[in-house]
Amino acid sequence: MEQTNRPTVIRTVDALREALAPTRRAGQRIGLVPTMGALHQGHRSLMDRARAECDLVVVSIFVNPRQFDRASDLQAYPRTEEADLQLVADAGADLVFAPATDEVYPAGFGAEVRLRGPLVETLEGAHRGSGHFHGVTTVVSKLFNMCRPDVAYFGRKDAQQALVIAQLVRDLDFGIRIETCPTIRDPDGLALSSRNSRLSPSERQRALTLKQSLDIAAELVAGGTTDPETIIAAATTVLSGVSLEYFALVDPRTLEPVSSIDRPVLAAIAAEVGEVRLIDNLTLLP
Amino acid sequence: MEQTNRPTVIRTVDALREALAPTRRAGQRIGLVPTMGALHQGHRSLMDRARAECDLVVVSIFVNPRQFDRASDLQAYPRTEEADLQLVADAGADLVFAPATDEVYPAGFGAEVRLRGPLVETLEGAHRGSGHFHGVTTVVSKLFNMCRPDVAYFGRKDAQQALVIAQLVRDLDFGIRIETCPTIRDPDGLALSSRNSRLSPSERQRALTLKQSLDIAAELVAGGTTDPETIIAAATTVLSGVSLEYFALVDPRTLEPVSSIDRPVLAAIAAEVGEVRLIDNLTLLP
């Protein structure tokens, strides 16, 4: 039997601090699962991991306008709070922190937390603009300070974001452990994403070719092919009815392009399917 | 009798966290006095305030290269660690955190915390370049995360910096109380500054005219003069043998110029005396 009580929903930073104070005073472990809502089983897997490891689990739900490069994308981003609260309750998380936009960015707000270097400039940084990751590192810094968790959980589906967050924690000394959890997929292979709900049935069929292209690359690498150009050419031929932004083979830690595949490599893809932008990735082992 | 034991000196972030853990677990109050060393009675007044209000007082000593706009200024900045430790011991502070530069900025460091808006763009921001306050907000964010104090103490001599830090704490939700303490002056009126040790006797005489200019402005405002131009013209005539960067009459909270003085106003001055750049300020009451 899964738990079906509605979790406690908190809307303000002050109330969050108050709710967390007893746990903190008791020296117990606080886990944070930061989300933009429209929760799915990928988020659920993060909550399950947090529930197993922490005394108190906070799920934040905040669609962060500062990390969207396009107003249309922000507006179309799915918002499903009632269903989200049920999923959080089922996962047995303790608190939902779901602030309004002006609680996070009140009038006069003027701070920005940014990283420099290849981690934020390549792949998503190059295609969505540098403002995307500045928006991510700013809101995550705020959430970290609001919640002061011991551990925070992110999904490997956003592999670059997880690396960026890890560098943020290192560079600014947050003293928070970052756990990156495996991508969860539907049985047909599609990586779970809040954006999938916007796909029509035919778009969904086309979206499957993203994972298929990653699988082809994985097979080639496993079979001994070492030349990135050969692999990318073969992998991208399977894409059908999607508008490719990038298919890249990069170092899994630095995200810099590799010239020959003699170690594990990250294959990362971004493509638009209709009006929905999707990303996926896979670690390829020679 | 003042205490003369040498304080505990900590060089690494890990050791700092370990040293603070018991105090934090006990729910006791931690106070941080961030400094760049070359400590004087202005710093001492911050430590005294922290000692009176907190269970554990940390004094950080770190000459932050990222907030210096000129390499020559960074190189010339006084470093007097042995004397600093004696002053900290006399003040009864508990811990000195004095990390090396590469402990704070290790290889691969790439983060920056910045504010936007008039607070960082005017006065010091305009004259030292925007990088100055970005350097301040970055290192202070790091020190806050390393130490996680309940309260942090800054001097009003750096009035703009104190306002910038207050906005940083608000915007990024640090949950730290900022206390700004009065400027301490020598009997002749010179505001205490680590840079004063670099003044020759004749430069020191000239440096006194900064405070004299502020006093003239204060007298005019107290006497009913309301026109900023009139006040600035009269105040700056007393400056002698110094190279004025700015003399400004601004709103004490926003630092925006005032057009008529009908409320308390901040008079702020920056000037070079020989090769030493000095700042000072005074709140003027009509």
TrEMBL record, chains A, B:
Residues that, per the record, bind beta-alanine: 67
Where ATP is bound, by residue? 36-43, 155-158, 184, 192-195
Q: Which UniProt keywords apply?
A: ATP-binding, Cytoplasm, Ligase, Nucleotide-binding, Pantothenate biosynthesis
Q: Which reaction does it catalyse?
A: (R)-pantoate + beta-alanine + ATP = (R)-pantothenate + AMP + diphosphate + H(+)
Please indicate if the UniProt record lists Cell cycle as a keyword: no
Residues of the active site are 43
Q: Where does (R)-pantoate bind?
A: 67, 161
Classification via InterPro entries: Cyt_trans-like (IPR004821), Pantoate_ligase (IPR003721), Pantoate_ligase_C (IPR042176), Rossmann-like_a/b/a_fold (IPR014729)
State whether keyword DNA-binding applies: no
Q: Where are the transmembrane segments?
A: none
Q: Where found, per UniProt?
A: Cytoplasm
Known EC number: 6.3.2.1
MF GO annotations? ATP binding; pantoate-beta-alanine ligase activity
- Alphabetical GO biological process terms: pantothenate biosynthetic process
HAMAP family listed in its UniProt record: PanC (MF_00158)
Subunit-structure text: Homodimer.
Job description of the protein: Catalyzes the condensation of pantoate with beta-alanine in an ATP-dependent reaction via a pantoyl-adenylate intermediate.
**Other known facts:** The reaction proceeds by a bi uni uni bi ping pong mechanism.
Question: What is the protein name for this chain?
Answer: Pantothenate synthetase
What is the taxonomic lineage of the source species?
Answer: Bacteria, Bacillati, Actinomycetota, Actinomycetes, Propionibacteriales
Gene of this entry: panC
